[in-house]
Amino acid sequence: MSISLQGTIGRGEFERALNFSVADGEVLAITGLNGSGKSTIIHTIAGLVPLRNGQLQSDNITWDAPDSKQWVAPEDRTCAVVFQDLRLFPHMNVISNVAYGLRAHGVSKDEARSRSTALLARVGLLSFETRLPNELSGGERQRVALARALVIEPRVLLLDEPLSAVDVTSRAALRELLPEVLGSFVGATILVTHDLGDVEALANHSLSLN
Amino acid sequence: MKPRVSPSLKIIAAVAAIFVALPLVSIIVRVPWSDLGDMLSQKSTRDALLISLQTSIIAALLSCLFAVPLAWFLARSVTKGLSVLRVICITPMVLPPVVGGIALLTAFGRQGILGQYLYDWFNVSLPFTRTAVVMAQVFVAMPFLVLAVEAAFRQSDEGLEDAARTMGASPSRVFFTIALPAARPAIIAGIALAWARSLGEFGASITFAGSFPGRTQTLPMAVYELVSVDYRLSLVLSLVLIFISVGVLAAMRDRWMAGR
Questions:
Q1: Which residues of chain A are within 8 Å of residue B182 when distances are taken between CB atoms?
Q2: Which residues of A touch B170 (CB under 8 A)?
Q3: Which CATH number fits domain B40-256: 1.10.3720.10, 3.10.450.50, 3.40.50.2300, 3.20.20.70?
């Protein structure tokens, strides 16, 4: 099992008991209305929010288990996130945004650059390397965020509403691109969305929070 | 259409503006312009100007070196007692500078709490040296930088820092590659402010470093001593300080003066 979560997330009325696991090559869609705690799941797995109780494991390594005080810091977890608000670094151009994670993992400058370029080619942004995020359209920014997450070759890919921040045309293009990218991704994918169309287009199975 | 500002308010505003402008203009009017070149090239003037520039630039850079990590700690740490630490760190802003000088003597003087050991063990005596001038300037100027930079760190997007961490960046990499670039405008403005404050520093430095011409005497100290001895020269040195201050304001106008 690549990733499994059994426990409680959130506080008060947002508290939720969860129990799921995702194997390599699988895409789990978690659906629910806005405010149902979908993003909290992503943030909990990424290590930005701690679990209330229970256990989060990846490849038999415990990332978070409050009862036994086990904790792996976000930077040491082998997962990558495409955030709902993307969070591209505004002061870095496209190639630096994509190469950032590789550089943080100690990959040399040249190798980081060539691997980033290869991924930008895969998402169709080869000629965009030197542009700044604010010079891109919503759909282009989304592709950069996707490339930035995939380039570090994570074991777990976390997608938070990957199609919510783009216009209709880009949405259609991304719906074609995403299955292609996810199909060749070897790790586990967790996709959070409020759109059942996304579930149908992208996921193997789904979990509803409603 | 009725005027937006009533005549009585206009008069009060005019009085306030004149109250600030008149003394500054008076200096410009009374400066012995014909002898300006000779006076500026006097050795005592040049010494004071050079010491002022040297110490204030070093003080501004040192303040930056220490204030930025401190501001980051204050902005992002979740340790208890942070508010107490913040109050201590910015106290020199409101402290009478002469009290700051006494405080520095008490800590770093030859009989000071730390100073006695520096002297006994390493034969280092800080008071009444140029290093003491810099220390006094850092003491009064650093809080301005801490406040400005902490505000910038607080306003910057923590979500970007979180994103960097999920990409494998260590806390120090996050600081240098994400937080620091975001705070850069505030840091630059803070350095300018700290430099201007260091340049004008008088009370703490004269108490802790003394006013020895050619050694520790800065421009403000020279102005103060010259008032009773050579009033015209003190006007010239004041003019230099006014020019530098206005220069800093002009350079920072985009940041401090909104629009128009």
A1: 91
A2: 75, 104
A3: 1.10.3720.10
Give the residue extent of every domain in chain A.
1-74+157-166+190-210, 79-153
Say how far apart CA A107 and CA A88 lie, in whole Å.
20
Alpha carbon distance B16, B245 (integer Å) = 20
Return the percentage of chain B with pLDDT > 70, whole number. 97
Q: In the CATH scheme, what is the code of domain A1-74+157-166+190-210? A: 3.40.50.300
Tens-place pLDDT, residues A12-37: 777 888 999 999 999 999 998 777 78
Answer whether residue B257 shows pLDDT above 80. Answer: no
Sheet order of strands, A205-208 included: A79-82, A156-160, A188-193, A27-31, A205-208
Give residue-wise pLDDT tens across range B162-199: 999 999 999 999 999 999 999 999 999 899 989 999 99
Selected residue of B155, B157, B167 to mutate for chain A interface (largest A Cβ count, 10 A):
B167
Q: Is B177 on the interface with A (CB under 8 A)?
A: yes
Q: How far is CA B210 from CA A14, B203, B217, in A?
A: 64, 10, 7
Tokens coding A82 = 């495409």
